[in-house]
Amino acid sequence: MGPENAAVPNCAPDGARASPPLENKLINYLHEGVVAKEQELNDTYDDDDYENGWAKNEALHELAEKAILRLAALLFEQKAPSAKTFPKGLSVQDLVWHPKVHFRLQTIDGTAKIFEITPDQAVCAPEREILPGPDASFTPDPRFPMHSAGNIQVLKIFDSGNGPACQVRLDDGQVVVPKTLPNGLKSDDIKREMRMLVAIHDAEARLGISVATPHLLGYVTHAEDPDLVIGFLREWVPSSSRLGATLECVPLAKTDVDTRQKWADQIKETMDDLHDMGLSWSDCKAANVIVDE
User: Fold this and answer.
1) Cα distance between residue 55 and residue 62, in whole Å
2) E strand or H helix that includes residue 271
3) C-alpha dist (Å) from residue 237 to 144, 234, 252
4) At residue 228, what are phi and psi to the nearest 5 degrees?
5) Most buried of the four, 96, 218, 251, 292, by CB within 10 Å?
6) Residue limits of the Protein kinase domain (predicted)?
7) Phi, psi of 165, rounded to the nearest 5 degrees
8) 76 by DSSP, 3-state: which?
9) What's the gap between Cα 193 and its chain centre?
């Protein structure tokens, strides 16, 4: 199985002043990052070494994460569930409600170590358990199928600041994108997005048009309760363009004027279609525009 903890020396040569314990350094990194973020919000940030408070916060958090991974990557890998735990692959249910393992970083006899501890030994801010629950105000549209989170296989996980973002495969082989949060429909954002997707579906049929946005394909239910809706499935839009997966990735300065104008016209057409439906796109940015050809 290998070592049960990981360690790096944190001592100074004879006659030299010992450096602070690693955990103190990491706490300082995280504290400085939080302060920089607050200063950015309060418009008091002043540090020429970073572009802004958000950048400083991200850079310092990355330093702390890298230090921890250098110290305990092998330990984390050993403690992570093995492939045998998920014989059919990782499911959306596994991804959203995964078991938690607690670790401690501590300098002992001049050596920084990371080792597993029990949940009752953890010293951290209390974390409120987030669980999904039924929502009396929501009624699933019967035109869209239900899919159990336990039967949706995760293919690829992307970075996301608001719940897991991933590409998944359904039982019939269809590749789609789920949107599920640990608290399910307790999230007003996810309910609002589902309502908008249904509204787009109905408006397309009524107006005889097809809007260039991913379409609603179905609902996701909790694996242990087939009546408990926790999210939805939408189209996966593949990018076959060699220029970049999203408009943000495209080097526009190197893209010919005709192509840029075509994209601008397509975006305007989509926005006009949404406005005709009485809807608006609140997160209109280049990172959310997929270049599919």
Assistant:
1) 10
2) helix 257-276
3) 19, 9, 21
4) -95, 105
5) 96
6) 152-293
7) -110, 125
8) helix
9) 17
Report d(CA 281, CA 275) in Å as an integer.
9
Residues 116, 75: Cα–Cα separation, whole Å? 9
Give the separation between CA 245 and CA 266, rounded to whole angstroms. Answer: 16
Structure tokens at 194: 């589902």
Cα–Cα nearest to 66, from 11, 39, 29, 98: 29
**Pairing status of strand 146-148 against strand 216-222:** parallel
| Contact criterion met (CB below 8 Å) for 140 and 146 | yes
Cα 95–chain centre separation: 11
Q: What is the pLDDT of residues 11-55, one digit of tens each?
A: 444 444 556 788 899 999 999 999 998 998 888 988 888 888 888
> Distance (Å, rounded) from C-alpha 251 to C-alpha 68?
35
Residue 198 CB neighbours (<10 A): 16
| Contact yes or no for 149/221 (Cβ under 8 A) | yes
